[in-house]
Design a protein that fits this description.
heterodimer, A: alpha+beta, 6-stranded antiparallel β-sheet, 7 strands, globular, disordered N terminus, B: alpha+beta, T-fold, 9-stranded antiparallel β-sheet, 3-stranded antiparallel β-sheet, 7 helices
């Protein structure tokens, strides 16, 4: 380890830091095309698939998960390896209290999750941070335990909750597959 | 010409795992990062108490004194955990799964653990684990850091450069130029920074606001009292590798006084930063103490 006494704690830097109250974190990872290549390296075609979901289907899909963003019926690709259907690539968005996440999930031809990539991660509490009363809730709170650390590197502070939101999103994509994609696949197999 | 660079993130280990790296060859880079994520997934599969077939679940389900053969990785983490338990006289204890399960932090065990069992009841010889009392191993304090280290080893072996791995605040870095890592409060304000070129930093706050009622709970158990500990501070630890940094944050948090763990920090050539919110602002303390190691950040 080559770090010697690497903490930067000069009071000037500290105080300057505290005045930085406006924070809007964002991290971009892969594009949809890059995620397609990463999740389906052998695919020869990504065929955009438009779904016309019935109200009953929408209700059943919504009931499958707590996710409240629009059902991702516009960002679905059926994946082919030559003429063989190889699975599905779906781009979906989920949000938590403070963050907004775009991710891509790959399903194999049987509808099992084959892989997942985060495409985009944004923290969305900039407006709240400027609100003094919102800030105040963290100051001198009983046990003081709301102090939270994170880093600028990926800027994911509510990482555990984000993980749960993505898990819920995937649950909904699986419901979408069950409700609609199996029929599409049957048609392309014939 | 700059080398191809890649940043990918996946939800793993119950958090977001981000990997950034560069390599002269774009294809080799993609393959290496994929292999690094696979290494993290493997550690998760071996050591998660949520996976019934994991090494840890098998140990926890086995009758006392029966032999359980585990992977090299699990044996390595357990050996480190038991060594640290000995060095800290039980202040760090990887067998607090029973207490965590009783509080609903972990799934209910198949078998009720012995309330008095501790790390001294775990015997590890090569890859064979024997527990002499019914207990529940939980690598919550070190598994994530170890997974980060495994990912780093894969990327280094593949010839990657400019490597940065972050698993929800457990960070390992290997870069030619220093990366600046910031410690922020929940409101986004900055309290400290750290320039890291080759090493690891872990951070813990041992508190979470639940999404529903903002109840603040601690996920730390004092092995001596078996009580949940409310830690009135956030802690960052800098060490050579992420497993060490991860484990030491728990030790620093459990110490009666931060200074109590200074000798252990020195043993591992580690440094800690203790951030404590007060009515007046944030009290910042550095360990081992050196010069004017205390600072206060005033509320704006």
């Amino acid at each position: 380890m080559t770090n010697k006494s690497a903490w930067l704690l000069s009071s000037g830097a500290l105080l300057a830091g505290v005045s930085v109250a406006e924070v809007a974190f964002a991290s971009q990872y892969l594009t949809a095309a890059q995620a397609q290549a990463a999740l389906f390296p052998d695919a020869t075609e990504f065929r955009p698939t438009l779904l016309a979901l019935s109200d009953a289907q929408r209700d059943r899909i919504r009931a499958a998960a707590k996710t409240r963003t629009p059902i991702p019926d516009k960002q679905i690709w059926q994946v082919f390896n030559g003429t063989t259907p190889d699975g599905w690539f779906v781009v979906d968005e989920v949000y938590g209290k403070h963050e907004f996440i775009t991710y891509a999930v790959a399903l194999d031809a049987n509808g099992a999750v084959r892989g997942l990539e985060i495409l985009d991660y944004r923290e969305t509490h900039g407006a709240q941070i400027r609100n003094a009363s919102w800030r105040q809730q963290f100051v001198g709170k009983q046990n003081g335990a709301a102090l939270k650390l994170d880093t600028d590197i990926q800027n994911i502070s509510g990482a555990t909750l984000s993980c749960l939101h993505v898990t819920e999103g995937v649950r909904r994509v699986l419901a979408l597959h069950r409700e609609a994609l199996t029929t599409v696949q049957k048609a392309s197999n014939d | 010409m700059t080398e191809p660079a890649l940043a990918r993130a996946k939800p793993l280990l119950g958090t977001m795992v981000e990997i950034r790296a560069s390599h002269g060859d774009a294809i080799a880079l993609q393959t290496a990062v994929t292999a690094a994520f696979d290494a993290v997934t493997r550690v998760h599969r071996l050591m998660s108490v949520h996976e019934p077939s994991s090494d840890l679940s098998r140990i926890n389900a086995a009758p006392p004194t029966s032999a359980v053969i585990v992977s090299n990785e699990t044996a390595e983490v357990l050996a480190f955990a038991l060594a640290l338990a000995g060095q800290s006289e039980g202040l760090f204890d990887p067998t607090m799964g029973g207490a965590h399960s009783a509080r609903g932090w972990l799934p209910a065990p198949q078998r009720r653990p012995d309330a008095d069992a501790s790390w001294v009841d775990v015997e590890l010889v090569a890859n064979t684990v024997r527990c002499h009392r019914a207990l529940l191993l939980d690598f919550g304090g070190i598994g994530k850091g170890y997974a980060v280290d495994c990912a780093m080893n894969v990327l280094l072996a593949a010839g990657c450069t400019h490597i940065l791995i972050n698993a929800g605040g457990d960070i390992r870095c290997h870069t030619p130029q220093a990366e600046r890592i910031h410690a922020r409060l929940a409101d986004g304000s900055l309290v400290a920074a750290l320039d890291l070129t080759d090493g690891a930093v872990a951070s813990s706050c041992f508190a979470e606001s639940t999404s529903t009622d903002e109840t603040v709970i601690s996920r730390l158990t004092n092995p001596n009292t078996r009580q949940a500990v409310m830690v009135n501070a956030s802690i960052m630890v800098l060490a050579a590798d992420c497993m060490t940094a991860d484990a030491l944050t728990k030790l620093v948090a459990l110490a009666l006084a931060p200074e109590q763990v200074t000798p252990l920090l020195q043993t591992y050539a580690a440094e800690a930063l203790w951030l404590e919110p007060t009515i007046a602002g944030v009290k910042v303390q550095r360990l081992p103490a050196c010069g004017s190691s205390e600072a206060h950040v005033q509320n704006p």
